[in-house]
Design brief:
The protein folds into two domains: 130 residues, Rossmann fold, CATH 3.40.50; 58 residues, Winged helix-like DNA-binding domain superfamily/Winged helix DNA-binding domain (Arc Repressor Mutant, subunit A, Orthogonal Bundle), CATH 1.10.10.10. The chain is 56% helix and 13% strand. It contains ten helices and five strands; from the N terminus they run βαβαβαβαβαααααα. β1, α1 and β2 form a beta-alpha-beta unit. α7 crosses α9. The longest helix has 21 residues. The chain is elongated and about 80 Å long.
Length: 210
């Protein structure tokens, strides 16, 4: 089945080069080209492109929210971001907006071809850097949620533990039973998903509590 490709890019030379590359392709056919977001949106409303190759610097595309809107309104169109914009800055946000892939304009047209074929099959095309960044971000968000779940007293005990205070010292400072401090310590280990005091301190540093 032929993949209908639409190209949205400010640069005529880029669009001409891509059209020429896929002119006689057995699986990919260039449906149309656009140099402004408004024209692109009207076309997507009128007919469905299988894959949309789009530059984040497209005229009229002022926010990643526009990309997200296209994904939501045209779920059958797979969006492949093709741009000279930094992957480090926009790779993750493109993925989170619902794009099916991100490829730099520094890559060869062969790579672009591979990316189009891959996402047309329902897969995604993102670099390992983007995937690792998303996983790292998700992990950090989970840890931040863990920290927010701590009670005021638990945070107070944690701050003393971070500063090297012993259980008996903390009990005197807070005017609490030493056994109670031990209970708070166990809760902290459990809530922050660590098994010892050293890891607890390191987790606190990761969360920038200290």
């Amino acid at each position: 089945m032929m993949i209908n490709l639409s190209i949205a890019d400010n640069q005529p030379v880029v669009m001409h080069g891509i059209k020429s590359y896929f002119k006689s392709h057995s699986e990919i056919s260039v449906l149309d080209t656009f140099n402004h977001l408004r024209e692109l949106e009207l076309s997507l409303d009128a007919r469905k492109a299988g894959v949309l190759l789009i530059d984040l610097e497209l005229e009229g595309l002022h926010s990643i929210k526009s990309l997200k809107k296209m994904v939501e309104e045209h779920p059958k169109t797979k969006i492949l971001v093709y741009t000279s914009a930094s992957e480090k800055l926009f790779g993750v946000t493109s993925l989170k907006a619902g794009a099916s892939g991100f490829i730099s304009k520094k890559e060869t047209l062969l790579k672009v071809e591979q990316a189009i074929l891959q996402i047309a099959e329902g897969k995604t095309y993102f670099s390992d850097l983007v995937h690792k960044s998303v996983i790292s971000s998700a992990r950090m968000n989970n840890e931040e949620r863990m920290y927010r779940k701590l009670s005021s007293r638990e945070k107070e005990v944690l701050s003393y533990l971070i500063n090297g205070k012993k259980n008996n010292e903390i009990s005197e400072l807070l005017n609490l039973n030493e056994k109670t401090i031990s209970t708070y310590k166990l809760r902290l280990l459990n809530k922050l998903n660590v098994t010892n005091l050293i890891d607890l301190v390191n987790k606190a540093k990761t969360l920038e509590i200290v």
